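Reminder to self: tokens first, then the designed residues, so the page reads top to bottom the way the pipeline ran.
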């Protein structure tokens, strides 16, 4: 009895969200972590909502077909989805799931693990924006450097004749100074 309550406690308070879906995609079981993430009660989800009804990206239009394929293949790995909570908050998640079959090979349920990657995706987006900004600044620096080189080239060319003339005059003064 003690080990069952420990397992149940571990399941409900795991750091990641867990749920099981029936053959039609309806919630069979969901842990407290996922309930907190989604903002629903167990009563609002179990048997009443399908997981793919909560999705707003990737599977929205083809969710039923995707779930049918999942039931045949038996697993999904590292599938990035965006789900919407009861309050309308968009949550980026990473889904891993396995199918459970009976002895005859009929699909019974799925067991899924969901990791909230919203913060990770926000950091990736920020990093991408910073890289784009850095690339833009590098382009500006490259063009500024080209302008500098062009200006120095023009300036050195324009100064070449006066410097040559100054050298010639200085040479004449030197010769004149030695003659006198």
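Designed residues (180 positions):
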């Amino acid at each position: 009895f003690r080990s069952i309550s420990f397992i149940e406690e571990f399941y409900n308070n795991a750091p990641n969200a867990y749920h099981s879906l029936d053959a039609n995609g309806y919630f069979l079981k969901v842990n407290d972590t996922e309930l907190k993430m989604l903002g629903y009660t167990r009563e609002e989800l179990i048997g009443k909502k399908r997981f793919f009804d909560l999705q707003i990206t990737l599977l929205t239009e083809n969710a039923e077909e995707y779930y049918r394929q999942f039931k045949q293949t038996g697993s999904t790995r590292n599938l990035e989805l965006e789900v919407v909570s009861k309050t309308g908050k968009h949550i980026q998640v990473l889904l891993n799931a396995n199918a459970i079959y009976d002895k005859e090979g009929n699909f019974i349920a799925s067991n899924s693990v969901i990791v909230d990657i919203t913060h990770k995706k926000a950091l990736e987006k920020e990093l991408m924006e910073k890289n784009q900004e850095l690339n833009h600044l590098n382009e500006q620096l490259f063009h500024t450097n080209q302008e500098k080189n062009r200006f120095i080239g023009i300036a050195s060319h324009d100064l070449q004749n006066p410097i040559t003339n100054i050298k010639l005059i200085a040479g004449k003064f030197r010769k004149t100074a030695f003659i006198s």
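The longest helix spans residues 118-179.
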